[in-house]
Structure formats: structure tokens, C-alpha cells
Amino acid sequence: MIIKPFIGIDDLRLGSTMKQAFDYIGGYDEHRTWAYDIYTSQIWKHKELGIELVFYNMDGYHLSQISTSSPKTEFKGINPIGKSEQELLALFPSIRTSDNPGDYSKSYYLDKWGLSFSVIEGKVESVTIFPLYDENAGDVRWPSHLAHHL
To answer: In degrees, to the nearest 5, what angle opens at C-alpha 111 toward C-alphas 18 and 32?
Structure first.
């Protein structure tokens, strides 16, 4: 499962419709809805693939983020899943931590690649891929608009 920053994982692309994502992964094992204030999302988990897909209402329920915990995950030739926190920091010196790290879990961000790493009890548990955002307009730049930029 090769991570393509700002684009997706393998051929699963951020910005896909729910139908396109469903057809690509062949279904899901768990489904839940998350809601807060005016924001809602549909979250699908596919256990065998080790992925979680999130579709936000603010993005027209297009695929807004992909998280992977698969042992087959690869980014820049490295499988980050299971790496220690120290190994993660050594591999990616420009990584930054969340503002409120906890004792049990921490989030680390590689902003220039649109990735976050969830570290639980000192080990990388998952990697989340985000789309590119146009900071001036505040709009999402889905992968089809990125082909000539990456």
C-alpha cells in the first residue's frame, strides 16, 4: 500500500465519491457517523486492508482522508507502521508533534507531505493522508488538480 502524498494510497484517490471508494475497496466492515455542530462525516473501516476512509459533509462527502494501519504501508520506501517514536523522529527530522501530546498517544505531522502519524504507546499505529488545501482560498485541491504540481 504505497502512500502518495496529497493523492491517496495505491489507486484509491482522495476526492473519490463514496461509490468510487466502495467499488475500489469492495465494501467495508464497519460504518459510523460522526457529527459535531454543523460538521458530519461518514467513516468506513476495512479491517483486511487496514484502512479507514473518512467522507466529510464539508467536502461534499468526497473521500477526505485515508488512514492506514496496514503492515504493507509504504512511504518513501519505508514502512512506518510499528516503528518506534524515536525511529520516526530520526526518519523524518522535519516532523512536528501536536500541540497537546498525551501520555498514551501523540500525533506527528509531516506538513509538506500532508501526512499525520498516530503514535500509541511509543509505536506508530497509523498514517493518515490528507488532501492539499489552497491556503488563500481555503479550498481543497483534489488530486485531479495536482497532477502537474507534484
So the answer is: 30
> Is residue 109 a contact partner of residue 99, using CB atoms and an 8 Å limit?
no
pLDDT tier for residue 98 given thresholds of 50, 70 and 90: confident
Which cell goes with 147? 497532477
Residue pLDDT, tens place only, 54-96:
999 999 999 999 999 999 999 999 999 999 999 999 999 999 9
CATH number at residue 41: 2.60.460
What is the model's pLDDT at position 149?
A: 41
Contact between 64 and 54 (Cβ < 8 Å): yes
Residue 11 lies in domain: 3-145
Q: What is the pTM of this model?
A: 0.90
Q: Is residue 138 part of a domain?
A: yes
**Total tally of structural domains belonging to the chain:** 1
Please report whether residue 76 resides in a domain.
yes
Residue type, 122: G
For residue 150, is it within any domain? no
- The alpha carbon of residue 108 and the mean position of all alpha carbons in its chain are separated, in whole angstroms, by 12
Residues linked to residue 52 through DSSP beta bridges, in sequence order: 45, 67
